[in-house]
Amino acid sequence: MISDEGKLKTLMLRSLDGDAAAYRLLLESMQTLLQRFFARRLGGDLARVEDLVQDTLLAIHDKRATFDPAQRFTAWAYALARYKLIDHYRRHRVRRHEPLDDERDLFAADTTDTAQAATIAQADLARLLSRLPQRQARAIALTKLDGLTAAEAAHRLGASEGAIKVSVHRGLKALRAYLGPDPELRK
Fold first, then answer.
1. Residue 101: inside a domain, yes or no?
2. For the ranges 26-40, 101-115, 169-183, which has the lowest average pLDDT?
3. Which of these three, 55, 72, 107, is where a domain ends?
4. Please, what's the b/e burial string for 105-114 (b: 16 or more CB within 10 A of its CB; e: otherwise)?
């Protein structure tokens, strides 16, 4: 994930020039930052957090032509995220004051609530595992996340121990291929 103003602005400018890879990396980086931003405000309501993230990413896409290269990208993105949050509050008749902080709030590390960070990590993990066939995802979940042995996982899934080992191996290989050589760039 990229969270540096200079790098994000460079990606935005390259995107505006038609660089599809830069645009994809910009949106992926923004997705992670926006998840943290909205999770700090909405708590563990993952569905609403994801809805707001997607709404904001769409707004970034729709409004990208309005971005002024002379201004800070993070301030522009923060304004869009803040407006989406206020719209959410209005739709759900929530009376809450949202302070006029600067864009650094969008990129602030979430050190106050590790449960929220864990919730976001679980959502990211679920999204990654959903890319795999169900058998591979389940084998990885049981052996790598739940800590079962291959034999225990095989018993639970009604498969052979060898089939579980192969499923885990193939699933992890597929995830590594998806994440590419630098997993930090694919969050």
1. yes
2. 101-115
3. 107
4. bbbeeeeeee
Cα 122 to Cα 6, 44, 187, distances in angstroms: 29, 11, 13
- Identify the weakest region by mean pLDDT among 23-27, 48-52, 106-110: 106-110
92 and 146 in a common domain: no
Range of the domain at 170: 131-186
Residues 96 and 154 in one domain: no
183: pLDDT strictly greater than 50 = no
If asked whether residues 102 and 159 sit together in one domain, one would say: no
Instruction: Say if pTM beats, i.e. exceeds, 0.90.
Output: no
Q: Tokens for 142?
A: 């049981």
Q: How far apart are CA 141 and CA 86, in angstroms?
A: 37
Q: What is the CATH number of the domain that holds 64?
A: 1.10.1740.10
What mean pLDDT do residues 36-48 have? 82
CATH number at residue 161: 1.10.10.10
Does residue 108 have a pLDDT over 60?
Answer: no
At residue 87, φ and ψ (nearest 5 deg) are -60, -40
Structure tokens at 87: 């719209």
pLDDT band at 186 (very low <50, low <70, confident <90, very high): very low
